[in-house]
Amino acid sequence: MRRLLPLTMILAAGLVSFGCGSFSKPDLEKNRFALEVRRPRRVPARGERRLLVPAFHVDVAFAGRGFVYRSAPGEYRTDFYNEFFAPPGDMIAALTRRWLAGSGLFASVSAGGSRESVTEILEADVTALYGDYTETRGQAVFEIRVTRLGGEGMQLLGQKEYAFEEPLEDDEPSTLAAGWSACLGRFLAALEEDLRRGGEEAPASGS
Fold it and tell me: How far apart are CA 178 and CA 36, in angstroms?
């Protein structure tokens, strides 16, 4: 028994040392990306239209921060190591507010508050946000459905779906983020033009 005691102690010490070394979890580093768009020029606010743009809803398949890739028809996967800096619905809505605030179409563009203080509400559902790598050359995919409310009792003024694709030079996550940003810029330019043409449909609220 005297010979076994030192051996037992050595084995126990070895197990502790092994557990602290080989079984320790390495730090996981993630790459975080933000979408970016810039207006060609900013127009001073004017008129009586006051717009509310709440956070956008995102389809559950694309609502997480992790980038989503389509690798085959009906086959999608999420990237744990590359993700959005903020929830995509919040980020896209914030960029939409900033873009429309510089359009000159509205006296104000807000993220929240009383609906009685605005003349229009812009709601949106992001229905697709992924990198499509089913072909030799990948592409960024962005699809969104916009609903516009306004007038007395905030009636439905219209609904429209937008779909954009941007070809990618390589499969780097940074290239995909840049592709989404390009899609978003095209969407915001188209949305502004639609809102400019449809401004007469939303009379100022009496409240």
Answer: 8
Look at the pTM and tell me if it is higher than 0.85: no
What would be the CATH architecture of the domain defined by 55-201? Answer: 3-Layer(aba) Sandwich (3.40)
Of the candidates 51, 118, 57, 62, the one whose C-alpha atom is nearest the C-alpha of residue 90 is 57
Between helix 88-101 and helix 173-197 the angle, nearest 10°, is: 50
**Domain range list for the chain:** 55-201
- pLDDT averaged over every residue in the chain: 84
Say which amino acid occupies 181.
S
Closest CA to 192 of 113, 122, 128: 122
Instruction: Report helix, strand or coil for 186.
Output: helix
Tokens coding 20: 């602290």
Contact 103, 43 (CB under 8 A): yes
